[in-house]
Write a structure and sequence with these properties.
This protein is about 70% helix and about 0% strand. By secondary structure, the protein is mainly alpha-helical. The chain has a domain of about 55 residues.
């Protein structure tokens, strides 16, 4: 694991998700949280799922050496609670 991926531990990712929710950006984060909770996922667990999707996007950014890809992040969010990137 590289130094940059070690920086993004679970607590940091959850704080980033909280910031996204507070900022309302991207809107898909709030929509995903609502969708998961409405399907019976406890809120804290739903936030952890979203943090996993964010972590996957950050790792993909690092692998690609590119910018944050909102489309790819949205695809990760849409797949939750499944996590096909982890397979």
């Amino acid at each position: 694991m590289t130094e940059s991926t070690e920086f993004f531990d679970e607590q940091t990712l959850l704080e980033m998700v909280d910031n996204q929710l507070a900022d309302g950006n991207p809107l898909q984060v709030k929509a995903t949280l609502m969708r998961l909770v409405m399907k019976g996922t406890p809120r804290e667990e739903a936030l952890q799922y979203i943090a996993c999707a964010l972590g996957a996007e950050l790792m993909a950014m690092e692998a690609d050496q590119g910018p944050f890809n909102l489309t790819r992040y949205g695809e990760f969010l849409d797949s939750l609670p499944e996590m096909p990137w982890a397979e």
